[in-house]
Amino acid sequence: MEKATHIKPSLCALAAAGTLSAWQATAGAATGVTLYGVVDASVEYVNRVAASPASPNAGGSRIDMPNIGGLSASRWGLRGTEDLGSGMQALFVLEGGFFPDTGGLPSSGLFSRVAMVGLKHQFGQVTFGRQTTSMLDGLINFSPLRFAATYEPGIWWMGINYRESNMAKYTGQFGNVQAVAHYSFGTGVPALSTGNLLANGGAGEDPAHGKDNTAYGASVMYLDGVFGLGIGYDQWNPALTAGQTARVRKASVGGSYRNGPVKLLAGYRWNKSDFPNGNTLIRDDYWWAGINYQASPALTLSLAYFYANVKQGAAITTASPGNPPNMQQYTLLADYNFSKRTDVYVSVGYARNGGLSFDSAATAYSFNYPTMTGQKGMLGVITGVRHAF
């Protein structure tokens, strides 16, 4: 998981996440290249965590440094623009992740987060390459913790395909209204564990089976200084076997209201994921609500509640197949900003009837919170420092 924003909890576009210029080579007016990034390192305590998804009978407490970071996923990137005249610009973004605890790179590739190029005009921009989905772009501003890397079920919300390759995407900004639509000619993610067989490692485009691994979606968002509202739809057609496409559909709505130092956020996401034969892998409703309080110019306090009702489908907890007890999570976050670029934080999360961040087969155990047999609750405490450049 990740926090797709800069250090302050103010609203911004996902593509500008964590970005402050440290180096810029200017070739002319409105033309340049920027190196940017975020380093987020933390120490975490978690109780009642299984040794692995395959070993639910062994486990206990754990203290370590998560390689996914704390509030943000650590990353670095290059982005640039070129003025083409007549109000037209060319643009590109190359962004990759790294592990702050070891300095290593993920096996998914050097620029596995974003790799795109496009053109921008007053009527919007069209981009091509690996990018985030339209639903994420339209709903992320209504996330109570800004899509935090820990203790927010962001991948449960958006799906493991929230970044997609081979994508053509349109983004238009019309005053306070943003409209986004995308189509992927073929995308994939690593196969999920514990019987979730929708993904096959990312076969991507298949000329012989044009529908395999395709994806598309759209969103519309209104945002001003007080009110916000977003709605989005996402569909992914993964193929475990060539010519046999599954169907993963999500629709979400979110809103926000700001009054002085207080901001309220809430939303809902519908999900239905079906095997190629029509059987349901998972059908669930996901709800969230949160409050951000600017206690001082430097200190932000956030409280969030997340709830998932799995109505039918495959195993979500290691030991509870079918329709498990409804998962819930409470998260409290204190974030203190030393500057616009550096902050420290402490976050506490408590999950009921599942792992923290709703970690499960449905999220590919991306956060390493597998549950133990018979477990009812899981508590996590994380503290760290984050710097943007």
UniProtKB/TrEMBL annotation:
Matches recorded under Pfam families: Porin_4
Keyword match Transmembrane: yes
Residue ranges annotated for the Porin domain, each copy included: 17-355
Location within or outside the cell: Cell outer membrane
Signal peptide (residue range): 1-24
Gene3D superfamilies for the chain: Porin
Membrane topology: Multi-pass membrane protein
Keyword annotations from UniProtKB, A to Z: Cell outer membrane, Ion transport, Membrane, Porin, Signal, Transmembrane, Transmembrane beta strand, Transport
Tree of life domain: Bacteria
Annotated InterPro entries: Gram-neg_bact_OMP, Gram_neg_porin_domain, Porin_dom_sf, Porin_Neis
Summary of subunit composition and partner proteins: Homotrimer.
Protein name as annotated: Outer membrane porin protein
Species annotation: Cupriavidus numazuensis
